[in-house]
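User: Structure please.
Assistant: Input sequence and predicted structure:
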Amino acid sequence: MEYLFEQGEISKGLFRSGAHLKILDACGVQSVEADLLARHDLDGAMDGVDTVYSMASPMPFGDEDFARVNTVGIRNLLKAAEEARVKAIVHLSTLDVYGFRNRVVTTANRVSPSGPYQESKLEADRLILEFAETNEDTKAVIVRVARAFGSRDPSLATPLLRMIEGGAVVLPASSVSMSFTHPRDIAQAMYKATTAHVRSGKVFLVKSFDAAPDELASSLSSSLQLTPREKKHGLFSKSLLPRYTLDQLRAGLSIEAQKDWDELGYSPAYDLRKTCEEVAHWYHKEPWVVEEA
């Protein structure tokens, strides 16, 4: 989100009760508490808004509301945006909607969700595309991103840091190469979607770099100047990674180089080394993040 703040794109941030981010205060952004599942909460929140960055999507790590947020919540958001006559909506989606069976993905691939979370994200995409068809005055664009990896990531970066610090990294038995996206590159793509001359209803696939999970762990270990043992997830070795993250790593979804990045004006600013160096710097600066995980 810092990237969007730096571009002067965000003046107001919506958050659920208990989910307030201190970064909003640090950037001087007006914080508004609102629940996407409560339609009336969104009316006042849309006052003076011309662009909506839709990034509210709880991950399936024990949050039972993810399906309703991705369906009822998105429907409420679109209705409020329509009534407020916003100029643009950029929705953050995920490569996971293509299912955990394909290896290399393009926009031509058939979406084939493999579980409830992916199905709910695909339904959110459908609602956005339907909105684009029926609201000519509002540009609606979808940015589907590869697996996010960067500082403050509780489901991949933090568990990896804990395992590296503990001296043994346990990864899935099949470590195929996959695509990852740095959060700032995600924000860059979303910002470009509002400023570039792209048609409403367009879907973009975005990544920062490709790497196998063991390459990711090795690069992060090198940035931390540590040399843990690397083990494969098996009967006698337990990974600290959440189940859904393990499924993502095993699937190894990757994005083929996208020709429409030129149309979007997107160019990744992060590679594997730069991303791991940033995560290591964040850890050295705030080691309590790992201690409290």
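The chain has one domain: 2-291.
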